[in-house]
């Protein structure tokens, strides 16, 4: 009986949002607000179904429906992805109930959001490359439709054109790879290498990686709920594709391509994010950099790190986009009250505090997590980079408000237990995901060289935000210009 209920829940996660999308497409012009509410309600139900499917999985049973190329299965990776998809969809569509109140395009949004949810659910639960491809293409079509919500804006049309071009290239590459694998099940040698490179190309296009990086910053004219669905969900599909199609993708050439593109995009996106003066522009390039890290970890074979980062980034970025209006309001309030730290005599004290912020954050985090870290889980070591960056950033932000050794002591009292809890969570989730992931790559010289070089370069780039004049000013200007995406207009909506 439990198995039957679980199968019904899995079918619901696909059929319910698909039905909502069809209803919204047919009746959206007549009942836009009601259909937005329906989409939000179905997403909430899908999230509860995902919780149930995860509970069934924890009891030792994997839920399977369908057969052949359209078989759907809930394994540990799929369970977490279903929770992410429906969690983000529920939050974004609930937010849209008020955001799009009285807007005649509400029905269009409801149709696109529900189609994106259903297609993403198919992609993460499909067991065959054809099923993954169907979900992948459906999600791309839905996303382009969502970006066209305000088609009358020239900036929106420009964003849709750029996105559609990148997605078409990626879809052609993916379906070509699926065709090669389907026609030659025992593909090896040159055929396997070509298929693997095509799969990486598809992942790079969907995740806005170099050389496909221009489409993401061009989508800022989209309404805020669409931006949340895009940045928190749709762009994550690239890393997930590499995880799901690992048996085909796992070649040295494809791995090298993923490492190079991911590292380059990580550095580029982080650099532009630091100099972008607008909130949404900075968030867009932050997403690009985060996707670069995910692609990089896939190229290094750190699968657990990629999936855990994918989930964390999804919820984190949805929150940032949906609260971007409040952030802008806060910046305007701050701008109305000028404040010069140096003028009130605290500049020198703050400078001394900041000089110890990064080493303090790094040292405390290392002391807390490295002794407990297992030697055979390179993915957990990779995620310690984020623990270090977060600890250093938190220490820096705190010391801006509480300069001095007292502030350092207070930061330490919170940072150490937080780092231990972080490592414990990463380890627990990693063990849960392990049965559904490829064998993790052990620590290697290549991995640590790439990681060390990336962290060093990011640290160097970060200085351009806080220094001016001379070389720093020149670098700042060049990076800002590099992140500019020319459009026919700068028009935006809300």
UniProtKB/TrEMBL annotation:
GO MF, any single term: NADH dehydrogenase (ubiquinone) activity
Chain ranges passing through the membrane: 6-28, 35-57, 77-96, 108-128, 134-153, 165-183, 189-205, 252-275, 287-308, 353-375, 381-399, 406-425, 445-464
Tree of life domain: Bacteria
Organism listed in the record: Mycolicibacterium poriferae
Membrane topology field: Multi-pass membrane protein
PANTHER family per the UniProt record, alphabetical: INORGANIC CARBON TRANSPORTER SUBUNIT DABB-RELATED, NADH-UBIQUINONE OXIDOREDUCTASE CHAIN 5
Record key words, sorted: Membrane, Transmembrane, Transmembrane helix
GO biological process: ATP synthesis coupled electron transport; electron transport coupled proton transport
Localization of this protein: Endomembrane system; Membrane
Protein's UniProt name: NADH dehydrogenase
């Amino acid at each position: 009986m439990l198995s039957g209920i679980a199968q019904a829940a899995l079918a619901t996660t696909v059929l319910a949002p698909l039905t909502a999308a069809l209803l919204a497409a047919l009746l959206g012009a007549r009942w836009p607000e009601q259909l937005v509410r329906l989409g939000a309600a179905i997403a909430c139900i899908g999230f509860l179904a995902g919780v149930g499917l995860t509970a069934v999985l924890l009891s030792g049973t994997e839920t399977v429906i369908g057969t052949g190329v359209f078989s759907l299965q809930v394994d540990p990776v799929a369970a977490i992805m279903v929770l992410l998809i429906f969690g983000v969809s529920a939050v974004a569509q609930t937010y849209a109930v008020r955001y799009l109140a009285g807007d005649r395009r509400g029905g269009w949004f409801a149709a696109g959001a529900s189609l994106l949810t259903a297609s993403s659910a198919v992609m993460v639960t499909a067991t065959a490359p054809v099923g993954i491809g169907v979900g992948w293409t459906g999600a791309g079509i839905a996303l382009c439709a969502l970006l066209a919500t305000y088609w009358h804006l020239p900036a929106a049309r420009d964003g849709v054109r750029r996105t559609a071009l990148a997605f078409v290239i990626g879809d052609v590459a993916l379906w070509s790879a699926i065709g090669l694998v389907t026609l030659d099940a025992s593909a090896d040698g040159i055929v396997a290498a070509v298929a693997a490179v095509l799969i990486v190309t598809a992942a790079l296009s969907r995740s806005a990686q170099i050389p496909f990086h221009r489409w993401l910053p061009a989508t800022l004219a989209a309404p805020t709920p669409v931006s949340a669905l895009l940045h928190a969900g749709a762009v994550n599909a690239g890393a997930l594709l590499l995880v799901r199609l690992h048996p085909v993708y796992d070649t040295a050439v494809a791995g090298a391509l993923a490492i190079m593109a991911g590292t380059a995009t990580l550095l580029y996106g982080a650099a532009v994010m630091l100099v972008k003066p607008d909130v949404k522009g900075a968030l867009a390039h932050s997403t690009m950099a985060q996707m670069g890290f995910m692609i990089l970890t896939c190229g290094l074979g750190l699968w657990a790190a990629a999936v855990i980062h994918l989930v964390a980034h999804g919820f984190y970025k949805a929150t940032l986009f949906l609260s971007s209006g409040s952030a802008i309001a806060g910046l305007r309030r701050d701008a109305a009250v000028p404040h010069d730290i140096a003028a009130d005599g605290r500049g020198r004290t703050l400078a001394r505090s900041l000089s110890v912020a990064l080493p303090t954050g790094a040292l405390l985090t290392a002391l807390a997590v490295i002794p407990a870290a297992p030697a055979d889980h390179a993915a957990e070591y990779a995620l310690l980079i984020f623990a270090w960056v977060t600890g250093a950033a938190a220490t820096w932000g705190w010391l801006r408000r509480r300069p001095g050794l007292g502030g350092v002591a207070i930061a330490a009292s919170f940072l150490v237990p937080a780092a231990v809890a972080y490592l414990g969570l990463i380890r627990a989730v990693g063990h849960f995901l392990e049965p559904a992931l490829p064998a993790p790559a052990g620590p290697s010289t290549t991995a640590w060289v790439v990681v060390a070089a990336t962290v060093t370069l990011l640290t160097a780039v970060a200085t351009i935000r806080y220094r001016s004049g001379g070389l720093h000013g020149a670098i700042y200007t060049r990076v800002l210009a590099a992140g500019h995406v020319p459009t026919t207009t700068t028009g935006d909506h809300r």
